[in-house]
Amino acid sequence: MQKTTISQVSKYVEQEVKIGAWIANKRSSGKIQFLQLRDGTGFIQGVVVKSEVSEETWEAARSLTQESSLYVIGTVRKDDRAPSGYELTVNEVQVLQIAQDYPITPKEHGTEFLMDHRHLWLRSSRQNAILRIRNEIIKATYEFFNEEGFIKVDPPILTGSSAEGTTDLFHTEYFDRDAYLSQSGQLYMEAAALAFGKVFSFGPTFRAEKSKTRRHLIEFWMIEPEMAFVEHEESLEIQEQYVSYIAQSVLNNCKMELKVLDRDVSKLENIKAPFPRITYDDAIQLLKNKGFDDIEWGEDFGAPHETAIAESFDKPVFITHYPTNIKAFYMKPDPDREDVVLCADLIAPEGYGEIIGGSQRIDDLELLQQRYNEHQLTDPAYEWYLELRKYGSVPHSGFGLGLERTVAWLCGIEHVRETIPFPRLLNRLYP
Fold it and tell me: How many whole angstroms separate alpha carbon 180 and alpha carbon 157?
């Protein structure tokens, strides 16, 4: 008898296997019991026929409640009607624990109740599918950047300054001085790019922004590549290749998960480079044409604006060349037009908003010093960043992709709170 997992049963058709599992659900039809089994790798139905098993096994199966744990021994059968394509004819049940009064039943529960029981909600088929797709995106991220010659570098989480000069930071004491939880590793990644050429980081970031929208989390994960000798247009090409890569990876490797989520895969099949590009100027005009008469040049876009822009395209769209005064101090001005910078936001279709923000960075020491003064960045904690322009400065670009928004978009789910195992929200630090 082979011990295996649900995800591997296709290797053992018509063979007896042993699987450690939990009961996701159960129903009975007289002399047949149907056990909906899960083991973390997948879901499968186990069929217990009274006339084909011992009395002990039949009674053990009858005693099982939702989320009871067990070893199940049975024969793998091919079954095209089953979601996974396979079923298990149960020969023996070895009960490990009978669960009592499991709080999340098959009936409907409110969101707050489910969030309070997030540690258990993770076991459901929907949450399993979402987090498996998240895992696929993470795997594809490493594959893409490794194949493209990037080195992974880990920036610090505790920093002495803000990457973007914002005040939405979590403050802490670092022995005898102030410190902050990182909202971006970008400045450190620029230092790494000037040492290794092409680098990327992948880690948690924190923003103390008091936002309750479906697109925001307090703690979230960012993928932040930085590239020496790479200018704005080349960076856009790398971004669209990366997003295309992870989308196709999810399509190819998460078919069952996408089916569980009822995701319209035709929308994902279209996510292939190149992506359309429009300038900020064009975006303002497009919005005015759509009835947003109150939007003026120089204002940043909110969620309704991004959604309206995305509706005009069937792929993610780059909005480029934003006004200098609404973007971060380190972004390089357009050489032909100093009131805009060489930057782009990538807006996902279907109302999911910005998933990437990126730019070419200022490489001129004098100009960066001028930007420091304009943004009143007098903190000595920024001095090392200036030094990067003193010793072998080169054109360089980078971007950041928010993992949770990307997961929400590719899964087709409404709220980012389901895209991370234990979300941190404005009103939630538990569980």
Answer: 8
